[in-house]
Amino acid sequence: MFFLLTLGSALGLALGNVLEAFGLRGSNSAKSLLKNKFWLGGLALSVVATLLYYAAMAKYNISLVQPFMSLNPALTAILGWKLLGEKMTKRIAIAIAFIFCGLLIDGTQAGESAGSPHSLETLWIYCGAVLALLAICCVFFLKHKRIEIADALGAGVGFGLSAVLYKSISIDGLFPPPVDFRLFSFAILYCAAFACSQVGLRRGRALFVIPLSAAAGLLVPAIGGILVFGDPAPVEKIVALIFVALGSALFVR
Known about the structure:
Elements: H1 2-25, H2 30-33, H3 37-59, H4 62-65, H5 71-84, H6 90-107, H7 120-143, H8 147-171, H9 181-203, H10 206-227, H11 235-251
Helix pairs in contact: 1-3, 1-5, 5-6, 5-10, 6-11, 7-8, 8-9, 8-10, 10-11
């Protein structure tokens, strides 16, 4: 079940990214976008893949699930090469090899025990620290006219922190209290991340925006799983995280 949920999610997100990018390139207004079958199909696939991803997070440790999301840029690169005509280089091939090596190592930890969550105070401290670091980075890159990097980081960190918040909510049960600041924060971060990803795909390169956002979206929840939720951190998992993070970073040109 672990591999079905994680691999299904990664494949769905990758194909959804490619279809959304293709649809965005062929639309020049919000109205035409809502009529674009490629963008709508990509959006639908992304929604289904996201549900699989959240199901995996609710059932397994987030630091174990998150590395499999690095398949997103790897598969996006392959599909973008075949469907969008984007270039496949030796560097991208090496990046894909790094990611698959990391996933092979990470997969050996699939049966690890559940973590021991820390207090909500730790959760909010972690979220605040990550958002503060994101703000500093975005100001720097915008000042140097590197808007593409700011878009990608905004998407990755937003999705990553929303995953951390979702994991915290899921620990308390399927139906948390209706008045819960975590739910509000989750919704805001997820919507902001989605907006950043769409803007980034429209005015940037898919083979730049997706990998960089995936790298940030990988590290934020993985580190959060260990610091906030007490996930086990054996040497094998750390090595796997390093491999997939390096693989994702190698995509960025």
